[in-house]
């Protein structure tokens, strides 16, 4: 494959020949002279590539577009003219060389990008945090069954306490003096009355046995 300098030189020479054919012929249509400006611009781009040996993709594409438009304008004349035919042939030759130059520059740019990417240090990837294991589903809590409460033991009733006769003996009784009074009255003596609250009182019984109790005649 030819070097960019060589391709640029050949393409520029073809454009110079086409421009000379158009400007040297007196019977070239006036509208074709308008393509002289873009052709001259493309020749300037190619000259810089010859001098430096380097070219940018954008500038090569601009030169390619200018030459393509010039060729379209020459083909649209529609008249037979030797100067136009010579210019058309020279522009077509320059266009093919510009295609090759544009491809060479594009491939070189891609190669430089790949080399730069290969030389770039690889950034360490941060370690991924460990993924926590999924927690098992909680088992449903069984409802607590209420336990029956044990009935409190019923204590047996305490047995009745026997009466204290000793205590009761000291209590004054009304029935005993009354009985004594009846016995004394029946015997004809003095009846001793005692209600338990004071000393006994003697009651004389005037009843004489045999006098009042004798049956009537």
Describe this structure in words.
The structure is a single chain. The chain is mostly helical and 217 residues long. Among the domains are: 114 residues, Four Helix Bundle (Hemerythrin (Met), subunit A) (Up-down Bundle); 37 residues, no CATH class. The protein has a two-stranded antiparallel ribbon. Helix 3 packs antiparallel against helix 4. About 21% of the residues have low confidence.
Strand arrangement, largest sheet? 1-2
What share of the residues does DSSP label as strand, in percent? Answer: under 5%
DSSP strand tally? 2
Q: Specify Rg, calculated over alpha carbons.
A: 77 Å
- Could you name the ranges where pLDDT drops below 50 across 5 or more consecutive residues? 166-182, 184-193, 196-214
State the share of residues found in helices, binned by percent: 40-55%
> What is the string of helix and strand elements?
HHHHHHEE
Give average pLDDT, whole number. 70
The CATH architecture name of one domain reads: Up-down Bundle
Main sheet attributes: strand count, strand direction, barrel closure: 2 strands, antiparallel
Structural class: mainly alpha
Separation, N- and C-terminal Cα atoms: 198 Å
What CATH calls the topology of one domain is Four Helix Bundle (Hemerythrin (Met), subunit A)
**CATH C-level class of one domain:** Mainly Alpha
Count of alpha/pi helices: 6
Shape label: elongated
Question: Nutshell version of this structure?
Answer:
The protein is mainly alpha-helical and 217 residues long. It is 52% helix and 3% strand.
């Amino acid at each position: 494959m030819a070097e960019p300098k060589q391709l640029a030189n050949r393409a520029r020479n073809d454009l110079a020949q086409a421009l000379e054919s158009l400007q040297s012929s007196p019977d070239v249509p006036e509208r074709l002279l308008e393509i002289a400006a873009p052709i001259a611009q493309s020749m300037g781009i190619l000259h810089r590539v010859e001098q430096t040996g380097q070219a940018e993709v954008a500038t090569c594409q601009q030169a390619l577009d200018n030459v393509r438009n010039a060729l379209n304008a020459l083909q649209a004349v529609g008249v037979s003219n030797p100067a136009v035919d010579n210019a058309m042939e020279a522009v077509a030759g320059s266009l093919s060389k510009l295609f090759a130059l544009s491809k060479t520059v594009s491939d070189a740019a891609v190669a430089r990008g790949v080399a730069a990417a290969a030389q770039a240090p690889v950034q360490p990837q941060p370690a991924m945090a460990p993924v926590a294991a999924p927690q098992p589903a909680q088992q449903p809590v069984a409802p607590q069954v209420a336990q029956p409460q044990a009935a409190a033991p019923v204590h047996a009733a305490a047995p009745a306490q026997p009466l204290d006769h000793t205590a009761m003996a000291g209590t004054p009784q009304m029935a005993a003096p009354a009985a004594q009074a009846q016995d004394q009255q029946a015997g004809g003596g003095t009846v001793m009355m005692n209600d338990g609250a004071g000393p006994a009182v003697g009651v004389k019984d005037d009843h004489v046995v045999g006098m009042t109790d004798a049956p009537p005649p």
